[in-house]
Specification:
With about 475 residues, the chain is of the alpha+beta class. It has one domain: Outer membrane efflux proteins (OEP) (Up-down Bundle), CATH 1.20.1600. It has a four-stranded antiparallel sheet with strand order 1-4-5-6, with no helix packed on it. A hairpin with a 2-residue loop joins strand 5 and strand 6. The protein is elongated and about 135 Å long. The protein starts with a helix and ends in a 13-residue tail after the last helix. About 25% of the residues are buried. The C terminus is likely disordered.
Length: about 475
């Protein structure tokens, strides 16, 4: 008996896990976060793996939406959180698959009446639990579905990361273009003001006419200062969306194509149907509902009591006594009806949340499509107006070159052209914002970025590992 106890104790100790302390040092963590850069060799490998080819140069000369999105997939802390939550859910699968341990009871007895051959009567008994009605399999199924839901949360987070990068990059591009146009408009107005001042001194124009041009000049100066401020703010937001500090984007050239194309497939009925069935949050909600159903199955299975085998041994006054017992609950007073009712209610709640989510997605798609159509019409109108202003500007410049018009007329045409360009820039920004909302509502296009989104939600070499 002593030998058996020693062997049993050794087996239990061998299977024990040991605690390993991993303290967080805020100062070192902050230093590591601020030291992240876009020339990291690990980032280069990750981008090449997801692009499917080697990069011609590193670091990149110019970063576009695709490469910046991949950089965000590599660095963004929100993805680390989503991935860690998935790992927690995966650990829950392991917990659900665990079998109940047997128990050992040692009950020494002392007989004070007689000491022959010994007053001691050691007794040993075991309790071997046996689950019935497939409870373990149902627990595992529910845990697997919760793990699947957590995995789809990674994809949803990845789409949110892409959306934030796209919005920030668009804001930065628009801010740069606006500052450039305002600079040109400011220069043109400065020359106009100089010519008008000469005419004012010569008495050729009135003071109100000069004042009007002066007010427009100062307004452009204020707008230019505001554009430079928004440019710095947009760069900071882009760095935050990627998971970097603003310093990491210094001297980095970025590009964003403001032209619009290939939108027809995003507004099709097929794209709408696919989104309502296969968006990441839709699939995650389906996994939650499946987990609720498995939980209901488990609670129903708990109506059937588990069985406990109770073999035992006792040494009594020189006699070896063996026993075997059978223990199980009698479902007379409680047939697990309360937990079953709760599980049914949770399943109904999960179904209601799924319907609510689908209705929300329908609303998002409807608003995105309507917004895109309005923005598209504004963009077409703006293109027509800008083309007319450009033609007028070229005509005025040509007339001035041959002496058929004054310099002031040419400068006024330039200033009007820059004003129209600023209006058209706003139209382009609105169309791109509407296009981004449409992509987010449909979670498309699922191209190279879509493949990268899938890769970060699975354990494979292309997935970005947790950064220190």
């Amino acid at each position: 008996m002593r030998r058996c106890l020693l062997i049993l104790t050794a087996l239990m100790l061998a299977g024990c896990a040991h605690f390993e302390s991993k303290p967080i040092e805020p100062d070192k963590s902050a230093v590591r976060l601020e030291s992240r850069r876009l020339d990291d060799p690990g980032l280069k490998k990750f981008i090449e793996q997801n692009l499917g080819h080697e990069l011609p140069a590193w670091p990149l000369e110019s970063w576009d939406l695709r490469t910046l999105t991949l950089a965000a997939f590599y660095y963004q802390p929100s993805l680390e959180v989503a991935r860690a939550q998935w790992h927690v859910a995966q650990a829950g699968v392991k917990t659900a698959g665990g079998r109940p341990n047997p128990t050992l009871a040692i009950t020494p007895e002392y007989n004070s009446t007689t000491a022959i051959p010994t007053p001691w009567a050691p007794s040993v008994s075991f309790d071997l639990p046996i689950e019935t009605a497939g409870k373990r399999g149902k627990r595992i199924a529910a845990a697997n579905n919760l793990s699947e839901s957590a995995r789809w949360d990674i994809v949803t987070t990845a789409w949110k990361v892409r959306s934030d990068v796209r919005t920030s990059l668009l804001d930065l591009t628009v801010a740069e273009r606006r500052a450039e146009l305002l600079q040109k408009q400011f220069t043109a107005q400065q020359q106009i003001l100089k010519l008008l001042l000469q005419r004012l001194d010569a008495g050729e124009i009135s003071r109100p006419e000069f004042t009007t041009a002066q007010i427009a000049f100062h307004k452009t100066r204020i707008d230019f200062a505001d554009a430079r401020s928004k440019l710095a703010e947009a760069r900071s937001h882009l760095a935050e969306a990627i998971g970097l500090s603003s310093v990491a984007l210094d001297e980095i050239k970025v590009s964003f194509d403001l032209s619009v194309g290939g939108v027809e497939e995003l507004t099709s009925a097929e794209a709408r149907r696919v989104a309502l069935q296969s968006r990441a949050d839709i699939l995650g909600a389906l996994a939650d509902y499946a987990a609720a159903e498995d939980d209901l199955r488990l609670e129903i299975a708990k109506q059937y009591p588990d069985v406990h085998l109770n073999p035992g041994y006792q040494y009594d006054q020189g006699d070896n006594k063996w026993s075997i017992g059978l223990t199980f609950d009698l479902p007379i007073l409680n047939q697990n009806q309360g937990p079953i009712a709760e599980a049914k209610a949770r399943r109904e709640l999960s179904a209601a949340k799924f319907k609510q989510l689908q209705a929300q997605v329908i609303g998002e798609i409807d608003r995105a499509v309507a917004g895109w159509r309005v923005a598209g019409e504004q963009l077409k109108t703006g293109n027509t107006l800008l083309a007319a202003e450009q033609q007028q500007q070229k005509s005025a410049a040509a007339q001035f070159a041959v002496g058929a018009a004054e310099q002031l007329d040419s400068l006024n045409a330039q200033e009007e052209f820059y004003s129209a360009s600023l209006v058209q820039l706003d139209n382009e920004a609105r169309s791109q914002t509407a296009l981004g909302a449409l992509e987010d509502a449909l979670q498309r296009p699922v191209d190279l970025i879509g493949a990268a989104i899938k890769s970060i939600s699975s354990e494979n070499p292309t997935a970005p590992k947790a950064q220190p």
